[in-house]
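Morning!

This is the sequence you dropped in the shared folder:
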Amino acid sequence: MADLAKLVDELSALSVLEAAELVKALEEKWGVSAAAPVAVAAVAGSAPAAAAEAAEEKTEFDVVLKDAGPKKIEVIKVIRTLTSLGLVEAKTMAETAGSKVLSGVSKQVAADAKSKLEAAGGVVELA
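The structure's back. Tokens below.
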């Protein structure tokens, strides 16, 4: 029987082009197609994977400012506190609908930022 560890090492050393040529040669020798089983496996495996992803709780959130509201200056102050941006950048962010104030933060940080921005008069969404 072949030494499987040695075989794995040799196959790992192949370039992408060499691996593609190996697949073609094996398909011709054995009279099979590598594409069909892969497509069937991908279709069969996609439903459980999607269900698993939906079951997982989201861990990273984006804080999106939809509208600065009537108290734009207060919202700008909060943006500067949360992000340490300069005045011009924070003002531009407050004036641009759909701006991401924070990106990829925890649920707690996102909820805290949302409450601060809403208290200042902004309309905020967590994405």
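Headline: Residues 80 and 90 are 6 Å apart (CA to CA).

More detail when I'm at my desk.
O.
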